[in-house]
Amino acid sequence: MATFEAVPLDHSPPDRSPAYRRLTNQVLQRKLSLFGIMNQAKIVQILGFLAEWAMRLRLPVKGIIRATVFREFCGGESLQKSLPRISELHSLGIGSIPDYSVEGLKSEELMDDTLLKLQDALAFTANHEQTPLFVFKVTGLVHVNLLEGFGCNTLTDPHQLQSYQRGVERVHSLLRMAAELQCPIMIDAEESWIQDPIDQIALEASVEFNQSKAIVVQTLQMYRHDRINYLRYCMEHAAENSYVPAFKVVRGAYMEKERERASLMGYHDPIQPDKASTDRDTHLAIEILLQHTTAFICLGTHNRWSCVLATELMAKFNIPKSSNRVIFAQLLGMSDSLSVELADAGYKVAKYLPFGPVNKVLPYLLRRAGENSSAAGEISREYALLLAEKNHRRKSASVEGQTSSAA
Ligand SMILES: Cc1cc2nc3c(=O)[nH]c(=O)nc-3n(C[C@H](O)[C@H](O)[C@H](O)COP(=O)(O)OP(=O)(O)OC[C@H]3O[C@@H](n4cnc5c(N)ncnc54)[C@H](O)[C@@H]3O)c2cc1C
After folding, report:
1. pTM metric for this prediction
2. How many domains does the chain have?
3. Which of 101, 200, 253, 314 could be disulfide-bonded to 6 (CB atoms 3.0-4.6 Å)?
4. 153 belongs to a structural domain
């Protein structure tokens, strides 16, 4: 008898998104106005520039940012303050992944302080059923220059080596705490020139902490043409060392920066030649992980096609849709239509929930806005769905009006 209950998602998306159908007219209009502005790349660029300068000059713009982009894309200024948002998502069957969005810190004191904040947030995550996973960036705990130096074997100064070790110890203490709390923790992937030491830390920690379940989850950026080979290597490593392999699979966020640096410094571009190659390897990675009997996968994507494919493969490999082995993840405020569709169909879904003081998460917000204001960007897709919802309501209201006046 078949033991699976996975029913794949339909290939074509619904005309009206279940996520937007439930919005009040007021919230729908608010989202439409914001996404309408974010849909225009030039305006986003100018507003981003102004916002950054206004914050630097301490002009009173926090309120505007808090009421607009922050409200849409962040949980709150602290995890406690994010609780209403976490509960709202939970009521839709969607989990939250707390993400303290601080990156690229420079001083030991700031990094020590970040570790304390991350430990608090990790404890919160482990204590709430609405938060199934935690996530962090290594560059919040280890100086980016030290990671780069270690990665290319140029870190020879004893003081720098000591600082590097201190940073790695911060990362280890967070991973150890996650293991003690039995709370899965994802390590975000960053630029390729600092990724080798991050992968090394993740692999060593996986051997130590993933003996009986997935605790440490490393990230694969499938826009890198070397990642399928790396995934195969990791799967062998997991088999040889008897631990549960665990990965977040994403396409990758730093494509332009990667290409620019490779061309400037004259080394081979680490990025795939085209989008189709990235898509192919993304889907191959999903298949390799789902085919395995115990591997954990968090599929971090806003691409509906990739999610449909994953649901089809789950059905093919008899993986129940409620399995804890497979989590679909999107960013807060983005692809809500997809998240709700997956959750309604019974799959495990969670949203990255960035939180922190407005000035600290501003770089994150600007990146999100910039990444998504292109014509093919996510905001465009969501804007079209929001507009469809508004038009549907307008038509229904006018039909109702005609019916009642006829009566
Ligand atoms: C929950 C979650 C977690 C994430 N974590 C990380 C992380 O840890 N590290 C990280 O780097 N990113 C991360 N991202 C961002 C992610 O890598 C993508 O940048 C973003 O999600 C867009 O990809 P997509 O699959 O959603 O959408 P799509 O629109 O299908 O893909 C866009 C992506 O395809 C790739 N691409 C586009 N054009 C080309 C081209 N010409 N050649 C080759 N590749 C191309 C790029 O990676 C681009 O971002 C995360 C995203 C989510 C949703």
Report:
1. 0.91
2. 1
3. 314
4. yes
Query: For the segment 47-90, what is each residue's pLDDT rounded down to a tens digit?
Result: 777 777 777 777 777 788 888 888 888 999 999 999 999 999 99
Burial class of residue 367 in the structure, from the number of CB atoms within 10 Å of its CB (0-12 exposed, 13-18 middle, 19+ buried): middle
Question: To test ligand 1's pocket by mutation, which of 220, 222, 251, 302 has the most ligand atoms within 8 angstroms of CB?
Answer: 251
Question: How many Cα atoms sit within 13 Å of 281 on the Cβ side?
Answer: 24
Domain of residue 191 covers 77-358
- Determine, yes or no, domain membership for 38: no
**Dihedral over alpha carbons 256, 258, 260, 266 (to 10 degrees):** -160
Q: What is the pLDDT of residues 182-233, one digit of tens each?
A: 999 999 999 999 999 999 999 999 999 999 999 999 999 999 999 999 999 9
Q: Which residues neighbour 283 within 8 Å (Cβ) at sequence distance 6 or greater?
A: 306, 309
What whole-number distance in Å separates Cα of residue 272 and Cα of residue 225?
5
For ligand 1, atom 38: residue with the closest CA: 275
Residue 3 lies in a domain: no
Whether 41 maps to a domain, the answer reads: no
State the CATH number of the domain containing residue 291. Answer: 3.20.20.220
**Which tens digits make up the pLDDT trace of 122-144?**
999 999 999 999 999 999 999 99
